[in-house]
Design goal:
The protein has 319 residues and is an alpha/beta fold. The protein has helices spanning 15-26, 57-67, 80-85, 87-106, 142-161, 187-197, 216-228, 249-259, 272-277, 286-292, 300-310, 314-318; strands at residues 5-8, 31-35, 49-51, 71-74, 112-114, 117-118, 165-166, 168-170, 172-174, 201-203, 211-215, 240-241, 245-247, 265-267. It is globular and about 55 Å long. 47% of the residues are buried. Bound molecules: nicotinamide-adenine-dinucleotide and 2-amino-3-ketobutyric acid.
Length: 319
């Protein structure tokens, strides 16, 4: 029998694509999308949807136990830029939901958990180039601190309570089916909407700020490959580095200009520059490759081509 899966925070940038991929693999009725929103997002109406607040611990517990959920993908969180504006709430949201789900797995109500970490676990003192899996980690944002603490708790629950929790340090994710949710890497999505509208783009990061990014299809494939791997292959129970594609605003603009020669970019760095400056420029993901065979498919050119072919400017008015 197929596992029954609950995706929490399914209405966001990752969830809207992850739910559809999981439904293709596991069957539409076996993957339940949930979010704070009253209405199921249009694109997820091919399967079940339930309104759930991850901060309502009792409601989450009774839903997961009564529905016989086997696996949870916990995506609800505040991202880096939004979290800096509301640090108390960011800490609450990013940590409390994780404990609710880890405790359910500790009590054997859940068999497997996916909880995403981020390159934000690294900080200004981390080596910036080809950042290793294990290195100095002194994150300087509330988001990064919550992700680092989350990683430690995931590993702790695995080591002490045999919880099968798996995680990836996602780079900035780039996609066209939904808008990003308030991160420092959002410029690399915003830029496509402005290019498609025929506008110039004022970038909130400086031209030579290199950050690791990844096209969403690769990120979803990595998530599912990690979750489908045999448990004994998963040697890291904090979170795996994934490299993706490292580029600067100037480099992505130059790639867009190959298709849209009139496109112009200007630079007006804001508070997000300091966050970006604290993160790695490139990542070493050799342990993900060695343990569960991870290899990305998209490079900068491949990602830019597919974004320009598919980006839908009407999303801007809906978002
Ligand atoms: P997002 O902001 O686009 O989506 C988050 C979703 O969670 C939203 O639909 C929101 O309505 C929902 N939500 C918020 N509070 C909730 C609550 N109390 N109960 C239930 N749902 C709630 O975020 P995303 O980009 O899809 O990211 C998902 C996860 O992946 C987060 O943990 C994020 O830190 C991590 N991540 C994302 C990226 C990226 O570039 N998108 C990179 C690294 C890590
Ligand atoms: C953000 O910019 O906050 C996210 C992330 C890299 O975690 N995209």
């Amino acid at each position: 029998m197929s596992s029954k899966i609950l995706v929490i925070g399914a209405g966001g940038q990752i969830g809207t694509e992850l739910v559809l991929s999981l439904r293709k693999l596991k069957g539409d009725q076996n993957v339940i999308a949930s979010d704070l929103k009253d209405e199921c997002p249009e694109s997820l109406k091919n399967g079940p949807y339930v309104k759930l607040d991850v901060l309502d611990r009792e409601m989450m517990r009774s839903y997961i136990i009564s529905e016989g959920i086997d696996e949870v993908y916990l995506l609800a969180a505040l991202l880096s830029a939004t979290a800096e504006k509301n640090p108390d709430f960011a800490w609450k949201l990013n940590m409390e939901g994780l404990f609710t789900i880890l405790d359910l797995a500790k009590e054997k109500h859940l068999k497997k958990i996916f909880w995403p970490s981020s390159i934000a676990v690294f900080g200004p003192s981390t080596p910036k180039v080809n950042t290793p899996q294990r290195t100095i980690m002194e994150p300087s944002t509330v988001y990064g601190i919550s992700k680092q603490a989350g990683e430690r708790w995931c590993e702790y629950y695995h080591n002490n309570f045999d919880v099968d929790v798996r995680s990836i340090r996602y780079p900035g994710l780039i996609s066209y089916t939904s808008l990003p949710g308030g991160g420092t890497t959002d410029y690399a999505v915003d830029i496509f909407y402005q290019a498609q509208l025929g506008n110039s783009y004022s970038c909130f990061l400086s031209e030579n700020t290199s950050l690791p990014m990844m096209y969403m299809e690769d990120a979803i494939r990595a998530t599912i490959e990690l979750m489908e791997s045999d448990a004994d292959k998963i040697k890291i129970r904090s979170a795996y580095n994934l490299a993706g594609i490292s580029f600067t605003p100037a480099e992505i603009a130059a790639e867009i200009q190959k298709s849209k020669p009139d496109f112009q970019i200007t630079y007006a760095p804001d508070f997000r520059q300091k966050i970006a400056d604290s993160w790695p420029g490139s990542i070493d993901d050799s342990e993900a490759n060695a343990d569960w065979g991870w290899k990305e498919k998209y490079d900068l050119q491949g990602m830019v081509d597919i974004m320009l072919q598919n980006i839908d400017i009407f999303l801007l008015s809906e978002g």
